[in-house]
Design brief:
Strand content of chain B: under 5%
Largest interface: A-B, 40 and 45 residues
Strand order of the largest sheet of chain A: 1-5-4-3-2
Number of helices of chain B: 11
Largest sheet of chain B: none
Distance between the termini of chain B: 44 Å
Shape of chain A: globular
Helix content of chain B: over 70%
Distance between the termini of chain A: 42 Å
Structural class of chain B: mainly alpha
Radius of gyration of chain B: 19 Å
Helix content of chain A: 25-40%
Oligomer: heterodimer
Largest sheet of chain A: 5 strands, mixed
Number of helices of chain A: 2
């Protein structure tokens, strides 16, 4: 049996759909970042206003939107491409 | 904020308005260069300078009304110059600049394509006043840092500006993502699948 995460992950359907459309190289990077979040190794930053319970974290050309306000649980809502014209 | 092209050409700007903006901002740039970690306080001073705000507003309107594509290209050129200066000093600010551009691009696109939607998003300023004020401070602090970086004379000064740039760009990104979600009226769907281990997560994501 493999090692458990410190926190349970809950992955929303929208996250899964977005994830499936991402190239395998970035999928790996995102997967690693999710593991870090689930093991409490990194922290993202809170959003503002109506979304202040959510957090964001950058992964290469993508951005994960999640929340960790419930104890021992990380909820992954979406993963989106960053839209910068500056590269 | 969208930085008008002629404004960012700190030297040799053509129009009277650009010249006045440049002259007006000069003293704030000097303050940032003296102590980059004080940039937020300088931004607050700038925000309380009514004449400066009026000039900025006029300049932004002028820049949007005129050829926004030309302004935008100039802006990217300006950021390229900023990045090059940092790179020459061995400092990587590319992530911070990407966030700033993404924010400004979103703002410009929203303004040009769907003004009513943009106004809707800007209800943020009415409903979350404390955070909205902070957003303005962060935006203007970043503007001051970008312009200051071109005038920095020592690597130490540039490093301090780069650190502030990274920190504030990260904060700007929180606002940007918030505005993007507001624009699309984002709502949580509520259907989740659990995972407690890397294997389970891999399966949930369809990696196997």
């Amino acid at each position: 049996m493999s090692e458990q995460f410190k926190h349970e992950a809950l992955v929303e359907n929208r996250f899964k759909k977005s994830f499936r459309n991402i190239d395998s190289e970035h999928q790996e990077l995102i997967f690693e970042k999710m593991k870090q979040l689930l093991n409490n190794e990194i922290q993202g930053e809170y959003l503002k206003g109506p979304y202040k319970g959510l957090k964001k974290v950058r992964v290469g050309k993508y951005r994960i939107i999640y929340s960790d306000h419930e104890p021992c649980r990380v909820i992954f809502y979406d993963v989106r491409p960053r839209e910068s014209a500056y590269t | 904020m969208i930085i008008p092209s002629s404004f960012i050409k700190v030297e040799g700007s053509e129009s009277t308005l650009s010249r006045r903006v440049n002259e007006h901002i000069e003293r704030y740039i000097r303050l940032v260069l003296e102590d980059p970690s004080n940039v937020e306080a300088v931004a607050v001073k700038l925000l309380n300078d009514e004449e400066a705000m009026l000039l900025f507003a006029s300049k932004m309107i002028e820049s949007i009304r005129r050829e926004s594509e030309v302004s935008w290209r100039s802006y990217l050129d300006f950021l390229g110059t900023v990045e090059e200066k940092f790179r020459d000093a061995g400092i990587d600010v590319s992530e911070a600049l990407e966030v700033v551009v993404e924010h400004d691009e979103w703002k410009l696109r929203s303004l040009m394509e769907d003004l009513s939607k943009y106004v809707e998003v800007m209800s943020f300023f009415v409903n979350y006043q404390g955070e909205a004020e902070r957003y303005l401070v962060v935006s203007f602090a970043l503007l001051l840092l970008l312009v200051s970086s071109l005038k920095a004379e020592t690597p130490r000064q540039l490093r301090a500006i780069g650190e502030e740039l990274a920190r504030l760009a990260n904060e700007l990104e929180s606002y940007l993502v918030t505005f993007m979600l507001m624009e699309e009226n984002y709502k949580v769907e509520g259907e989740f699948e659990p995972a407690r281990s890397p294997e389970e997560l891999s399966k949930v994501l369809g990696l196997e």
